[in-house]
């Protein structure tokens, strides 16, 4: 009654209207009251799995339909929802059916009968309808006041401004629920547009990421809980994250707001990372090329020195060859003349006194011993000269397909018998591990045989020296020879259990005239010549590994086929 009295007092007196004006004014007031009453009443609509089960007349009128039947005749509830909001509404309906939700009104929009869009305040509630669960929506039209009318427009302007930003933006309230996000955020994370509407807990986005495999095979609840704590920051923090579904790399910056919420910006740094990787790879390639150039420069310097040394060696060898031949020839001739002289003086032996004859015999023995030493050392000097000439000229054999295993076996037998001929007490265990698949290899057999004999001889020398010096009666000299196929290449590996070598010795091993043998036992040219034959003539590789007093291993790697080139030709290039 009080409200009615207040309404009557608010009306102008009837005396101020003419009869016609009074009727029109009454009708206008009645229509205005009807409109306000309808706007204040909530419209109801009930649906299950998209099928509309009930619609109130109030809602039908709010949506511009003439009857409830027209709403009920729609194919499903999605016909009332604009396309850009359907994903958000599906998620809201699904959460509603899972149980009671926080009764907070959502600002949503719906299609009217004339296809225009109208904004409503929405409350969702799960209900039992016909014995089965359903979703009930209560929709209240936004009051037609100037301030309220501007809210959707202002929201659209704000959303348009955020969408225009080049980076992804996500805003969370103090309870880690989504307050807003721009389209770039959804694009960067490969989310369907509108999938996570305002009010969605941020944990829902993390559960979605886990379901699609972003975090790998890890526990879901623990992972999501740990990730949620990362949003609770007191200051600005940065982190990087790669989105597995699209490969984008994001630079994520989380900053707290004064009201307790958070702003998270996402910068797409995929191109920057790609450029950084390309620059790093280019730097690594440049450094590798520089290293290779330095190694090549060093090799060129060594080759130049070797070429100069080869020329010097050839010159010295040629100069020594002739006088050495004279020494050897005259030593042999002097021995023969001495023998003839002794035959001529033999009849006079009986005329010599005992002491004199003893002196003569001593002198003769000394002369013969000296001549034998001259001949022995002359032959040794001749061998050195021949090695020097071989080192300077290189091999001169012909390239041909050769049974490698047979060549290795022949060189091994030759070396072993040669060593035993000099020392009959020497024995060694020979372990042959030949790969039958090696077959024939194109090479210069005389030169490779020279390399193998040299290596076998050195190995036998090493094991014999260890046998004589180690003092272990249980020690057994052993040599393992292995041939193996390695794709387009083949390898020969020679391993002995001898005295081994130090790192300093290995570094100088292929230097001409370097030897670890005592004076008179080695020329220092064998391994240098072997290296030239393997690496330069046959385009192979010569590797050495050793542990002092334990073992030494030489590995020769040769290509199956190679363009023929002699060492002399190699030095001309």
Automatic annotation (TrEMBL):
Enzyme class (EC, first level): transferase
Which CDD domains does the record associate with it?
HisKA
Tell me the Gene3D superfamilies matching this sequence.
Answer: 1.10.287.130, Histidine kinase-like ATPase, C-terminal domain, PAS domain
Highest rank taxon of the organism: Bacteria
Which keywords does this Swiss-Prot/TrEMBL entry list? Coiled coil, Phosphoprotein
List the catalytic activities from the record: ATP + protein L-histidine = ADP + protein N-phospho-L-histidine
Keyword tRNA-binding present in the record's keywords: the answer is no
Keyword set includes Transmembrane: no
All copies of domain Histidine kinase, residue ranges? 315-562
EC numbers: 2.7.13.3
Q: Which InterPro entries match?
A: HATPase_C_sf, HATPase_dom, His_kinase_dom, HisK_dim/P_dom, HisK_dim/P_sf, PAS, PAS-like_dom_sf, Sig_transdc_His_kin-like_C
Q: Which residues form a coiled coil?
A: 272-303
PANTHER family in the record: SENSOR HISTIDINE KINASE, TWO-COMPONENT SENSOR PPRA
Name of this chain's protein = histidine kinase
| Organism of this sequence | Azospirillum melinis
